[in-house]
Amino acid sequence: MSDEEARQTFRAIRWAGTDGEPVCPKCDCAACYAYASRPIFKCKACHAQFSVTSGTIFASRKLDLRDYLLAIALFVNGAKGMSALQLSRNLDCQYKTAFVMAHKLREAMAAETVDAKLSGEVEVDGAYFGGHIKPANVKSDRIDRRLAEHQTGKRRVVVIMRQREGRSLPFVFRSEDQSVPTIRARVESGTTVFADEAAGWDELHASYEMGRVNHSVNFVDELDNSTNWAESYFSRLRRAEIGTHHHISGRYLGSYAREMAWREDHRRQANGNQFAVLVAAASSHPVSRQWKGYWQKSAK
Ligand SMILES: [Zn+2]
């Protein structure tokens, strides 16, 4: 793909609402001049100059737009996620550049559901990540790691709210019961909520019609109560942890959890479609303060 082809591809997706005609990122004005000599535009209203990538996560001097589009194609292809190392090898760029780009893409994925609310039938479940303690070699030296892992202070629970046939919203907490206010904020009243027998979910009975399943007895009971949608989300997150990232640190657990939610929710779409969805999400997502100049900031 040439630079010009990459710009045209990106332009068509970014400004799909105006058939690819530029819209000023500063004032939303659709009347713009195009320069003949350079691939930039000038707004007739506020005179701002901008390029096809201005105001998006692609506004970077490190990589060509073409590399970004390739990165997105590679990124959506990795069902178990893609590590910054794999991405840097595939793009032939520095690890640091790939690391920031992957996180920017995760952020664009998460932006899709930032205001989402769930209704209908929603499954809620939690799973613990991080704070792993290696077992001692000699059996008599071993301790109960289930207790010890809580002591490292690094262990976190990912709580997923997943609407059946709908969106998945993961959040990170120190313990399951801390998630109840967030569940109330994101799951509309009138929803039927399905959860396992853990005591932390008892509080939800005050707000929702509940279907509880006792996992020590069965996974789908005679009333068809189950949390199978939540389980399949967690198996994807575990596969990402084991197969791709090896160790998901507490700091980025939320980013990876939201990435895997996006992948679950888009799993039935063809790759080409996922590519267009992520390019569109990334093109409408502003550069975040967290990742803008990340390595320069951390070097100080
Ligand atoms: Zn303008």
Task: Describe the protein in words.
Helix 3 packs across helix 4 (95-111) and helix 4 packs across helix 8 (250-265). The protein is an alpha/beta fold and 300 residues long. Strand 2 (40-43) and strand 3 (49-51) form a beta hairpin. The mean pLDDT is 86. Helix content is 39%, strand content 14%. The strands form 2 sheets. The chain has a 5-stranded mixed β-sheet, covered by helices on one side. Strands 1-2-3 form a 3-stranded antiparallel β-sheet, with no helix packed on it. The chain has 10 helices and 8 strands. It is globular. It binds zinc ion (ZN). Zinc ion binds at residues 24, 26-27, 29, 43, 45-46, 48.
Keywords:
globular, 300 residues, binds zinc ion, 3-stranded antiparallel sheet, Nucleotidyltransferase, domain 5, alpha/beta, 39% helix, 3 domains, 5-stranded mixed sheet, 14% strand
What can be said about this structure in brief?
This protein is α/β, with parallel strands linked by helices and 300 residues long. 39% of the residues lie in helices and 14% in strands.
Explain the layout of strands and helices.
Layout lengths: L2 H12 L17 E3 L5 E4 L5 E3 L13 H13 L6 H8 L3 H17 L9 E9 L15 H7 L4 E8 L4 E6 L6 H7 L5 E5 L12 E5 L14 H18 L4 H16 L5 H13 L10 H6 L1
Parallel strand pairs: 4-7, 7-8
Antiparallel strand pairs: 1-2, 2-3, 4-5, 5-6
Helix pairs in contact: 2-9, 3-4, 4-8, 7-8
Zinc ion binds next to loops.
CATH architecture of the largest domain: 2-Layer Sandwich
Give me the strand/helix succession.
HEEEHHHEHEEHEEHHHH
Biggest sheet strand order reads 6-5-4-7-8
- What's the count of strands? 8
Q: How much helix, percentage-wise, in residues? A: 25-40%
- Count of alpha/pi helices: 10
Largest sheet: 5 strands, mixed
The value of Rg in angstroms is 22 Å
